[in-house]
Amino acid sequence: MTLHASLLRVHPHHLVSLFTALTVLMGVTETEARVIYVDNLRGLDVCDGTSFDPIDRASGPVRTFDRAVALAGPSDTISLANTGHPYQGDLRLFGRRHSGIATLPFRVLGNGAVISGARDVPAASWRSVGGLWQLAPRRKGRFLLIRNGKPLPRHDVPRMAAEPDVESIPDGHWTVWRGRIYYRTTELLSTGEATLSIATGDCGISLVAVRHVLIENLVVQHWRLDGISAPGLCQDVRLNNVTCRENGRAGLVVSGTSQVAAKKISLTGNLGHSLLIEDFGLADIVDGTFSEPPPLS
To answer: SS3 sequence, the chain?
Structure first.
C-alpha cells in the first residue's frame, strides 16, 4: 500500500532522465564502489575499513558509525558485523556523499545487527524518594526506561500535580514528573541489584537529502524519538527486512518531500506512532507489520 500526506507523482520518463544525469554527474562505477566494514567488538577507528577481519593496526574493520560514514563515498556499502552486541551510536547519512545512483545504490547492510539507543544507568544515579526511586537525566524531554532489553510500562500522572502520587503508581511501573523519572519497585536500585537503562540518543538512523539508498536486515530500537527518520529531500530510499521497535515516538518518520519504500518492515511497540508521515512525505509499504494502523490522509 502507498501511504502519503500529499500526492506526489513523477513521470517515468523524467525519472529515467534524472537517473542518467545522476550517473554522469556522480561518475560512480561498480568497480569504484567500496565496502566499509564495521565491527563494534574487533574494529578500530584507526583502520581503513576495507576488510571484514582485522589484519593489522591500519587494515581491518572500523568500530563506529562516525568513522564509517567519514570513509564512505557515493554508492559505497557500509556492512555491519552481527556481533551479538548492539551498536551504540546513531547512523547519519547526508547528501550526495551518502547517495547512490539507480543502478548502484548506497547501501547499509545490517546482517541482522541491532542499533540501540539504550544506555545503562549507574546504580549511584538512583535516589530513594518517598517510596519511589528517582532518576534525574541530564537531557529532558521524552524518556524511555528499559530493563533486560524491554521497555518498562509507564504510568502517567497529571502534569499539574503538586507531587507524584505514590499510591497510584503500580509496582514495576514508572512515571515522569518535572523532568525526573520515578520508578516504583521493592528492589534496591542504589546497590546495583537491578540493571536498568534509558533511551538517550534522538534517532537511530537519520537520512537527509540522500538519493538511491538501500538499508536492509537491521533492527533499530530504544531511541528517545524515532528509529529511522527521513526529514526531507530524500528520494528512492528503500528499506528491506528492517525492524524499528520500542522507540519513544515513532518507528519510521517520513516528512518534508521524502519518499521511502519499505518491504518486510516491522514497526511495533513504538510509544507514539508505528509510522509517522508529515508534510509531503510519501511511504510505500509492502508486507508491513504495525502495532496500530498508520495514519492516512
So the answer is: CEEECCCCCCCHHHHHHHHHHHHHHHCCCCCCCCEEEECCCCCCCCCCCCCCCCCCCCCCCECCHHHHHHHCCCCCEEEECCCCCCEECCEEEECHHHCCECCECEEEEEEEEEEECEEECCHHHCEEECCEEEECCCCCCCCCEEECCEECCECCCCCCCCCCCHHHCCCCCEEEECCEEEECCCCCHHHCCCCEEEECCCEEEEEECCEEEEEEEEEEECCCCEEEEEEECCEEEEEEEEEEECCCCEEEEECCCCEEEEEEEEEECCCCEEEEECCCCEEEEEEEEECCCCCCC
Closest CA to 291 of 232, 258, 221, 244: 244
Question: Is the CA virtual torsion 68, 71, 75, 77 positive or negative?
Answer: negative
Residue 36 near residue 76, CB atoms below 8 Å: yes
Sign for the pseudo-dihedral over CA of 179, 183, 189, 190: positive
Count of other CB atoms within 10 angstroms of residue 206:
18
Q: What is the pTM of this model?
A: 0.87
Does the pLDDT at position 292 exceed 80?
no
CA angle 11, 13, 19 (to 5 degrees): 105
Taking CA atoms, 62 is separated from 44, 45, 270, in Å, by: 5, 5, 31
CA pair distance 99, 140, nearest whole angstrom: 34
Each residue's pLDDT tens digit, 162-191: 777 777 899 999 999 888 999 999 888 877
79-127: pLDDT as tens digits: 999 999 999 999 999 999 999 999 999 999 999 999 999 999 999 999 9
